[in-house]
Design goal:
The protein contains 8 helices and 12 strands. It is α/β, with parallel strands linked by helices. Strand 2, helix 2 and strand 3 form a beta-alpha-beta unit. The longest helix has 18 residues. It comes from marine sediment metagenome.
Length: about 240
């Protein structure tokens, strides 16, 4: 099952909804979202694309994620939860690779792609590949039901709006000392996960740009369905038009 959060950015979340329908149709994977209270556009997107949702205030973001996670108590048949931002787009091959590691409690990758679509932040309209070195990436990580239950459906400590991945790992390791982990470099085995750095993104590209390798955005066509690629490229053109670029 996929867990995400939504706040504003309905034009990008609509494309994310398309991707989640793909995961449901291809892998029988459901998606759960914690949506900001009163964000009716995203309520409608969840309904349109069959995403289960609950509502919560937007901040602290760690509390919002935990609220979404609590919905999983009502889902009987799941083994792992995958954490995705609503600006993260996984290929089908990425899902297959994550599923291959399902004997583990904690499955993550060491690399991913980024596309800067926020004209007010560094990296605008730049497409990058990043390998994280010794650290592991938060997007797309899968966590076993055993760990979720040991942590009482609270994978994040309360009160955080930034550094969520590290804080979550710290909490999990403290609660589950016998954690069984698995990680890999997805580019070496054909995986693809991209993070769209759009407006209101929690973290910018600034800290990692110097460690990223430039890449061609047309790689999207090799990994994602045409309708999702077309929608992402249309979004870029709309952003350019709206900002006179």
């Amino acid at each position: 099952i996929v867990l995400t959060c939504m706040h504003a950015r309905s034009e990008l979340n609509r494309i994310f909804g398309m991707a989640m329908v793909r995961l449901r149709n291809s892998f029988d994977i459901d998606t759960v979202a914690a949506v900001t209270s009163g964000d009716t556009k995203n309520y409608d997107i969840c309904k349109e694309f069959g995403i289960h949702y609950t509502t919560e205030k937007n901040k602290p973001v760690s509390d919002k994620f935990n609220t979404g996670l609590s919905i999983l108590r009502h889902f009987p048949d799941w083994t792992h939860v995958m954490i995705l931002g609503s600006d993260d787009f996984p290929s089908n091959r990425f899902i297959e690779l994550q599923m291959e590691g399902r004997d583990n409690d904690f499955i993550c990758v060491a690399d991913m792609w980024f596309w800067g679509l926020n004209p007010k932040r560094p990296g605008w309209d730049q497409f990058y590949y990043w390998k994280a070195g010794s650290s592991r990436i938060g997007a797309g990580r899968c966590i076993s039901r055993r760990v979720v239950e040991v942590c009482d459906y609270k994978l994040w400590p309360p009160g955080y709006n930034a550094g969520l991945d590290g804080q979550s790992v710290k909490r999990i390791k403290a609660m589950v000392p016998d954690l069984k982990s698995y990680s890999y470099t997805q580019r070496e085995v054909g995986g693809f996960l991209i993070d769209i750095k759009y407006e209101m993104h929690i973290s910018s590209l600034s800290p990692i740009i110097r460690r990223c390798a430039p890449a061609d955005p047309n790689i999207l066509w090799d990994h994602l369905p045409g309708e999702e690629c077309e929608a992402l490229f249309r979004l870029r053109e709309q952003i350019k038009e709206d900002n006179g670029l």
